[in-house]
Amino acid sequence: MGLKGRDVIGIRDLAREEIEEILRSSRRMIPYADGSKSGSQLDGKLVTLAFFEPSTRTRLSFETAVQRLGGRCITIADPSASSMRKGESLHDTIRMLSSYGDAIVLRHPNEGAARLAAAASDKPVINAGDGAGQHPTQTLLDLATMQEAFGTLTGLKVVLLGDLKFGRTVHSLAHALAVFGAELVLSSPTGLGLPEDVRSSLDQLGAKVSEEEQLHRVVRDADVLYVTRIQRERFADPLEYQKVAGSYRIDRAVLASAKSRLIVMHPLPRTGEVAPEVDTTPHAAYFRQAFLGVPVRMALLSLILTGKAA
Amino acid sequence: MRELKITPIKNGTVIDHIGNGLALEVLRIIGIDALDKDSTVSVALHVRSQKLGWKDIVKVENMELSPRKVNAIALIAPTATISIIRDFKVQEKRAVDLPSHILGVLRCPNPNCITNQAEPVESEFDVVRRRPVQLRCSYCDRLVDDFLAALARTGS
Q1: Using CA atoms, how far apart are residues A115 and B117, in angstroms rounded to an integer?
Q2: Is A24 a known active-site residue?
Q3: Which residues pair with A224 in a beta bridge?
């Protein structure tokens, strides 16, 4: 074990104990993330942020994490200006970048890009999302949000709501929650359910999984309502999209029967799945969730680059 | 043994016990273009078999198969046996054996997979299930069941 020098391509690369170590460490990083303490854990470290696809939130939270811990970044934020525009392969670009900085954070439009980058680089590679593929730091911050709210992940009743078919980050989250012994309730429109192979891997982990299409039936005894985007382009008929999207919209009326401690999560940006009126209820956890991306990424970078937890 | 309706070969490879109707796919894997132009290729379709009921057979003169091609054949014809013939004698006979990791033989069916871009990498798959065979792309995690569609012309 030990995360120093490791690549993090998918959540499955991390053992349960390693995820726990990252979550513990990220709790200790919170004062550094909110600016109440100044950090020097990454002093002298140079992190390459190679973003070949637009992503403001993820890139800025990595940048914040590095700089608040005293490290520095070099950044490719605009792929159109990079050498890949001139036809250079990702392999060669990464090979070159790995000789500059101490670690590479990669976002790329093609699935499997992070795995290729890890093979090309002799420095650790952290996957910050590859196409519709893995996005392990999103899963880690999702877990951190639930753990902060409830103190544990085991036994939590988590409703995964919306498009469970195409959202690979939801698949990673479902896997991680199953590893930690959470109970999963899958609630998705017809045709957007969890793929069979993901479902069967949850069964293999011995996870308690149930399905319920009707939103009002799942809210009552849930601890976490994890809402995902339902993408317009998945529907041939715009009216059908409107109907489905409307039936999965979370507002105060839907939450009326919820437990007082229920939290509503969303990876953001939202496009109407969670009504703005929810923001002022104690259930809203999505902005906290977005903030926790910073301490989680601090913890991961610190463990990978220095081997130290906080 | 039943007499086969194909003449013996002096040197080469016999791929027997190919599932009924799959001989042409096996030929596609072998790559007819790559063969010695003076060699004979014999194909027997729909041959009686005690083991399988019906089977196909392919015989190729003056050629031995690379391990990669054997892996590809194992994917679509897991019942096949491969005999190496030297001077009319069976020098070596073995069943095809699917390894747990497959390099290069198939193309990932996910068009957005990094292995389908202009990158200097070979495709890679892990065997996640053997009966029936199912593979998972080591890069993008896509599951593959339809090998006929995914067979890549690797030229190896």
Answers
A1: 14
A2: no
A3: A158, A263
For residues A88-99, one letter each, b for 16 or more C-beta atoms within 10 angstroms of the residue's C-beta and e for the rest, the string is ebbbebbeebbe
Q: How many degrees, rounded to 5, is the angle at CA A140 between CA A138 and CA A146?
A: 105
Asked whether residue A242 falls in the same domain as residue A163, the answer is: yes
* Same domain flag for A84 and A148: no
- pLDDT per position as a tens digit, A17-69: 999 999 999 999 999 999 999 999 999 999 999 999 888 889 999 999 999 99
Nearest chain B CA: its distance from A254 CA (Å): 36
The answer to whether residues B76 and B148 touch, using CB atoms and an 8 Å cutoff, is: yes
Q: CA A123 to CA A6: how far, in whole Å?
A: 8
Domain count, chain A: 2
With an 8 Å Cβ cutoff, are B140 and A119 in contact? Answer: no
What are the pLDDT digits (tens) for A188-238?
988 889 988 889 889 999 999 999 988 888 999 999 999 998 877 777 788
> What ipTM did this prediction achieve?
0.88
Q: Which domain holds residue A163?
A: 136-289
CA A18 to chain centre: 16
**Does B145 lie at the interface with A, CB-CB under 8 angstroms?**
no
Instruction: Assess whether A172 and A37 both reside in one domain.
Output: no
Answer for the pair A160, A173: CB distance below 8 angstroms, yes or no.
Answer: yes
A40 and A68 housed in the same domain: yes
Chain A contact set for B120 (CB, 8 A): 89, 91
Whether residues A279 and A296 share a domain: the answer is no
Are A237 and A97 found together in one domain?
Answer: no
Inform me whether the pLDDT recorded for B135 exceeds 80.
yes
How long a stretch of residues is chain A?
Answer: 310
Alpha-carbon distance of A273 to A281, in angstroms, equals 16
